[in-house]
Design brief:
elongated; five-stranded antiparallel beta sheet; Methylamine Dehydrogenase, Chain H; mainly beta; four-stranded antiparallel beta sheet; 42% strand; 61 strands
Length: 741
């Protein structure tokens, strides 16, 4: 039961802060085109149903990522939750806005009018705000499409400030404020109209707001993409100071960008911010003079507590107490500006990847809403407690499904999920269970023998099941994949016990393993390294008709290449016509003719493109640009520690002590393997949509028009039905046959 005094979330000093990446305003249309131009195309009447995972578990019932919340001040059982960006370089959810009217017992999506200029559902939501005096009025800050407003409790929405990435709302001094690429926005008519109060630019725009308004005084601050802090006084924004910056932190994307702000209600000149300057992307800074001077707080790799500050919020009960949420823990410190304060355990929570925290006075302690990668949590005692919290969104399905496999009867699905262990269903999605495999892994069933199930992840390496994914044993090999890979497992078509594995983990804490290509001839029981000429292979595909015909993508010195063999790896030829990119290509070979090979990746302008070979992979030609898909609000570039010096056991220069995971905007490309005559359909998944081609990659039509999620990962074809792994709606399956045999 949620205490009534959580209604203070809607009070005038409340700030619901979203999170930022590295660049502003892209204004990019989801174009679908051929090599010489193009335009938007719809895939027709294809619709999809979400299969889950639902009612997920991470030791406790959970929902998947939530990072925005608004509570009805007249009825605390009415809650709105939004799923959008995480902090720093963390992946985001494309799950939109959901609403409960029974305190979390059930949730429904809100989509009516929440659409962009192309008619697609606006699904990446950074912040929510509810009018405390008129709770039927809601505001939503979106990642790509500005600000939306509802005056009927979310039943319908309209865009009230178009374009740009809106990240935060605050009410202060009788006005509403928001941060957007355009600048600090202000509204005096309850969010119906907005004007730019402090203009932003691509390199200098507001990203966070923080305020205090109580007996100790009033203060209002804004933080920017380049680390400047502004103070609000007499209707004007005055530059107060700037955050310090450490260039060599070991994490790509490090900058002064301000993600979140919190102001001490008992001392309004005391301000804390989280910033992109940290060894795991986030660092904590403090000022006790209204933002003029700043001190780095809790510096050190992972702070010995968690993976960087990702959520901050001052107590309204305990003087100068600051709650700090991290990727791995929840704590509180004395927020007096000291650089090395004692760290105390706050409430024990059922969530671990904390992204936002909103304390609310609750008698002798604070209550807290906590947004996390495992859902929206609520605890009545924020300072202590033994798991007395509840994950309010547990009944909602907002999980980020990545790679998955589907049994021939469609009943068993094994799904890897971001920020969760893998989940499995054996009844087509009616119920799901936890399988204790690490996030972002790869899942496969042996062709012709679905009792043989494989999980391949960077924590456990290769695990094998002989009972259709029900129980597993770990392989004795030490191979591990990188979550950044595209397709690191392939089977020989005539003897599926012959398998190929790309190995080489991401540069992160605790993930080590050999780089190279490996082979098994006994279904993975024994694995041997091959002497193939690759530095860091990340994708492998085998001709569906010819096991001696193999194509591999490799990365060497930060640039990708493709190579082909037609004699099972005895000799290799490097493919020509391949555009060198910092990401691994995704690969697929036509089931009709092995001469046709498709490869997809992303260029320096964030364009997901497709290469085609008509000679089995010897030469490639660029045939289409599918979509422009910015990764983190800026040019797509692989995390720098992959390609520059680092410090790691064994002296591997491609490892860093604190690597951040940066995923390619292009995820997978896959032919319909059951079509062996004529022209097989091929699907591609990206950060900005899923697409279908009926002409081997020359032209593409959008698939996700009717879905909420628009970010996708894995692809599977089964009896003509198309399955996609999505960021925000789990695995989705087409409601009808897309292409029959």
């Amino acid at each position: 039961m949620i205490a009534r005094n959580v209604l203070a979330l809607a009070a005038s000093a409340t700030v619901l802060v979203g999170c930022r990446g590295t660049f502003g305003g892209n204004g990019v249309a989801p174009a679908v085109m051929g090599a010489g131009g193009g335009g938007y195309a719809a895939a027709g009447s294809i619709s999809f149903t979400s299969l889950g995972p639902t009612n997920m578990s991470d030791g406790f019932p959970a929902s998947g990522k939530v990072n925005a919340v608004a509570v009805n001040p007249s009825n605390s059982k009415i809650i709105y939750a939004g799923s959008g960006r995480g902090t720093g370089l963390e992946t985001y959810s494309s799950a939109g806005i959901v609403k409960t009217t029974d305190g979390g017992g059930s949730w429904k999506p809100l989509t009516n009018g929440l659409v962009d200029s192309f008619g697609l559902t606006v699904s990446v939501i950074n912040a929510l705000w509810i009018d405390p005096a008129q709770p039927s009025v809601l505001l939503a800050a979106s990642e790509y499409d500005g600000i939306y407003r509802s005056s009927d409790s979310g039943a319908s929405w309209s865009n009230v400030f178009a374009g740009g990435q809106a990240t935060a709302f605050a009410s202060f001094g009788g006005s509403l404020f928001a941060t957007d690429d355009a600048g600090i926005l202000a509204s005096t008519d309850d969010g119906k109209t907005w004007h730019v109060q402090l203009k932003g630019t691509a390199k200098h725009h507001p990203t966070a707001l923080g305020s205090a308004d109580g007996s100790a005084g009033k203060a209002f601050y804004a933080g920017t993409s380049d680390g400047y802090i502004y103070a609000y006084a007499s209707g004007n924004w005055v530059k107060a100071g700037r955050l310090p910056f450490t260039k060599e932190t070991g994490t790509s994307g490090s900058s002064r960008m301000v993600h979140q702000m919190s102001v001490d209600p008992f001392s309004p000149k005391t301000v804390y911010v989280s910033s992109n300057d940290g060894s795991w992307d986030q660092n904590l800074f403090a000022s006790t003079d209204g933002g003029k001077h700043w001190t780095a707080v809790l510096k050190g790799i992972y702070y010995n507590y968690g993976l960087g500050t990702q959520a901050i919020g001052f107590s309204f009960v305990h003087k100068h107490r600051l709650y700090v949420g991290e990727d791995g823990g929840f704590y509180y410190i004395t927020g007096d500006g000291s650089s090395d304060p004692p760290i105390n355990g706050a409430a024990n929570l059922k969530v671990i990847d904390v992204r936002n925290v909103w304390p609310v006075a609750n008698g002798s302690d604070d209550a807290c809403f906590v947004a996390s990668d495992q859902g929206l949590d609520y605890t009545q005692t924020c300072s202590s407690g033994s798991y007395s919290d509840s994950i309010v969104t547990a009944a909602a399905s907002t999980g980020l499904a990545r790679r998955f496999t589907v049994s021939p009867n469609g009943k068993t699905l094994m799904v890897s999920i971001q920020d969760f262990d893998s989940h499995r269903t054996t009844n087509g999605g009616q119920t799901w269970s936890l399988t204790n495999f690490y996030e972002d892994g790869f899942n496969e069933l042996r062709p012709g023998d679905p009792s043989a199930c494989y999980v391949y992840d960077e924590a456990s390496g290769l695990s094998i099941s002989s009972d259709g994914c029900l129980s597993f044993s770990r392989s004795s090999s030490n191979i591990t994949p990188s979550r950044l890979m595209t397709t690191p497992v392939a089977f020989d078509p005539k003897n599926p016990k012959t398998m190929y594995f790309a190995s080489g983990p991401s540069p992160g804490p605790g993930f080590y393993g050999p780089k190279g290509m490996f082979k098994s001839t006994d279904g993975g029981e024994t694995v041997t390294q091959l002497s193939w000429p690759f530095t860091w292979p990340g994708a492998v595909t085998v001709d569906p008709k010819n096991g001696a015909h193999i194509v591999v993508c490799d990365i060497n010195n930060g640039k990708s290449s493709l190579s082909v063999t037609t004699n099972g790896g005895k000799t290799w030829k490097k493919s020509s016509g391949v555009i060198a990119t910092p990401f691994w290509y995704a690969l697929t070979i036509s089931p009709v003719s092995g001469k046709t090979v498709l490869a997809s990746s992303v260029d320096s302008k964030d364009n997901v493109f497709v290469l085609r070979s008509n000679d089995g992979g010897l030469t490639f030609t660029k045939v289409s640009v599918v979509v422009n898909a910015p990764l983190v609000r800026g040019p797509a570039k692989l995390e720098e520690s992959l390609i520059r010096r680092g410090r790691h056991e064994g002296g591997d220069e491609e490892h860093s002590p604190a690597g951040a995971f940066i995923y390619s905007p292009e995820r997978e490309i896959r032919y319909n393997q059951d079509v062996t005559k004529g022209a097989p359909d091929v699907a591609i998944t990206t950060l900005r949509g899923a697409y279908l081609s009926k002409d081997s990659g020359s032209t593409w039509a959008r698939l996700d028009d009717e879905l909420i999620a628009h970010s996708f990962w894995g692809i599977r074809w089964l009896n003509g039905y198309l399955y996609l792994g999505s960021d925000g709606q789990g695995v989705v399956r087409s409601n009808s046959v897309v292409q029959a045999k």
